[in-house]
Design goal:
- This protein is mostly helical.
- The chain folds into two domains: about 130 residues; about 110 residues, no CATH class.
- The protein is built from twelve helices and no strands.
- It is a multi-pass membrane protein.
- Keywords: Iron, Membrane, Transmembrane, Transmembrane helix, Transport.
- GO terms for molecular function: FMN binding; heme binding; oxidoreductase activity, acting on diphenols and related substances as donors.
Length: about 250
């Protein structure tokens, strides 16, 4: 695992926490686009997996600091990226605590607005990742692009959410957003040539940039959705959007 296995494990668990959170955001679009209501049954498990990785991430960090709890507390207070990450962890713990059926019944209408905090929590987690990564922010940029893609889907009018066409428009928008934020990061937070890094998005002779991967993944998702939608029309006849909306409400 390298010369510092504990530090590496700390980073990996943090990465997987954000990955699982992003996967949890995929569930709702999958329910609509794939006409798969049962997808919602796995969202809670995915969210709890993200919380589990976050807790292990914190435990490994404490272990890497030789279990000096007071030192860890001071570091969290003193270092902004640790403060941001810990804030995200607290928020995620609250969502995990209130994810049970009992909590859902007790909170009633307040449950859904509370769990919309997952969006700022993910944003904080990605920001924590940016600051911790410092120079090479390729993976945070990739996660940013996927996050933007999933957020864009959520602003699509409900009558279009089951259709594949919005996904084709969302892919370049998310990729552009990822490339733009990558440029801003390198321009404002580092001494690296941000303009040259931005231009690399259009030069495929070298390493493929994260924004390009976001574009490819988004278009692939749109294509798969389009094929699935087409097959459904073949077997079901003309689309019935009203029925589709009733199913997904």
């Amino acid at each position: 695992m390298g010369p510092e296995p504990l530090a590496l494990a700390t980073h990996e668990t943090g990465d997987w926490c954000i990955r699982f959170l992003l996967i949890s955001l995929v569930v709702t679009p999958a329910r609509w686009v794939l006409d798969w209501p049962r997808a919602m049954q796995v969202r809670r498990m995915i969210g709890l997996a993200a919380l589990g990785y976050a807790l292990v991430h914190l435990a490994l960090y404490i272990g890497n600091e030789n279990l000096r709890l007071w030192h860890v507390v001071l570091e969290i207070v003193k270092r902004p990226y640790l403060s941001i990450g810990f804030t995200a962890l607290i928020g995620l713990a609250v969502l995990g605590w209130t994810s049970t059926d009992t909590a859902l019944r007790r909170l009633g209408r307040e449950w859904k607005p509370l769990h919309k905090l997952v969006y700022p929590i993910i944003a904080l987690g990605i920001l924590h990742f940016y600051i911790q990564s410092k120079i090479n922010v390729s993976e945070p940029v990739l996660m940013t692009g996927f996050f933007l893609f999933l957020l864009l889907w959520r602003v699509v009018p409900s009558r279009w959410r089951a259709l594949p066409w919005p996904l084709f428009a969302m892919a370049p928008l998310a990729a552009a957003g990822a490339a733009g934020l990558e440029y801003l990061w390198y321009a404002l937070a580092t001494n690296l040539p941000a303009a040259e890094i931005f231009k690399a998005n259009f030069d495929l002779e070298f390493e493929i940039r994260p924004a390009v991967w976001v574009l490819v993944a988004g278009l692939a998702a749109a294509a798969i959705s389009g094929v699935w939608w087409g097959l459904r029309q073949v077997f079901r006849g003309s689309p019935n959007l009203a029925k589709s909306q009733r199913i997904h409400e």
